[in-house]
Amino acid sequence: MPLFGELFLSEIIKKPVFDPKGDIAGRVRDVTIVKGDPLPKISAVIVERGNQLFRIRWEQINLFNKRIISTYLAISLIEPYSISEDDLLAARDILDKQIVDANGAKVVRVNDIKLEGYDGEAVLIAVDVGMRGILRRLGIERGSEGFLKLFQAQMPYNLISWNYLQPLKPKLKTIALTVPRQMVSELHPADIAEIISQVSREEGAHLFKDLDIETAAEALSELKPEMQADIINAMDAEEAADIIEEMPPDAAADVLSDLPAEKAKEILEHIEKEEAEDIQELLCHEEDTAGGLMTNEFIAYPPDMSIKDAIECFKKDAEDIETVYYIYIVDEKEKLIGVTSLRELLLAEPEARLSEIMETKLKTITPETDEMVVAEIISKYNLVALPVTDSEGTLLGIVTIDDIIDRILPPAAKRKRRKM
């Protein structure tokens, strides 16, 4: 069953299939695909004759190339075929479908499929996602090449190896490989979020569901608010709680504030008490204020702690905190009395005390401070984090530079946290 040279699916669709006598057994309508080792392979050729469909199994194929396709079977022995949703058909289920190019971190559309002979089989080795695939299906690829040569230009090939693809539709999971899924999980969360944003809600939710909890939490933080709400609202409360728990409290509060109150309450009930309280505390603040921007995850130590001990404590405490820029110094009543940078901490003598290296001329804001004022202070004093205190000076949280970046983006990109 040889397959000669370069062959694309579009080149065999509607081609005649000959029986041993040279009569036309039908014209190619599609091919069925099954999982193969190492690549998916053709299991049968579906032909159409007189408004009826017939199936010729791969082992019954004699010749298979772009010039001629033939079968060992006489026409009378070819079995009828009925369209089945259980079968994976290349033209019906793969052509024109969206897939994730995990290597390029983007969503692409399949314009054609490249086939190649391997150990007596016809395997799917790549998909064409470029203009060539479209022109080939229209039957004008060669003519277009000639036209471009007049201008000394070339039409590039845009083929993606099947190993770098992650099908999105559930049906295509039957031929999905484990490597592509791992590759998707290894993409930057922002890239995953961009991919999810480019596909339908159903496909995005399916791709999101396949992510591990940690990756899902990071990707969720990068999605637009309405898409976050759609995905979490459609999930089981316990499953959603696992993802929300992995997020920083401020990001978690943002997501929950966009959900219906009953759904948010149900999710909070499945989150550990201490973490749920941190999130609820942030949900109490008005939007567009420091309280609505801040996170209550920060590191604070007493002034009499030695530099050596502070560094040891920091190594443990920082593991559970998203971003750390400063060490805050608080007294026994949690009142903010100083701050030191990580640089100063590392350069100080091990036996020195935090009180000896801390900066006491502090810039602070209250939870009610307007977000634009917060942005102005951070910009004016070149800060990467700004502490938020109550009227008595108790440290409540911090607003970090990444929290404020949204405030200098166009209004459409801004998130509004609904007070609960």
Automatic annotation (TrEMBL):
InterPro entries: CBS_dom, CBS_dom_sf, Mg_transptr_MgtE_intracell_dom, MgtE_N_sf, MgtE_transporter, PRC-brl_dom. It comes from the Bacteria. Gene3D superfamilies: CBS-domain, MgtE N-terminal domain-like, PRC-barrel domain. Transmembrane segments: none annotated. GO terms for molecular function: magnesium ion transmembrane transporter activity. This is Membrane protein. GO terms for cellular component: membrane. CDD domains: CBS_pair_Mg_transporter. Residues 294-356, 358-414 form the CBS domain. Pfam families: CBS, MgtE_N, PRC. Keywords: CBS domain.
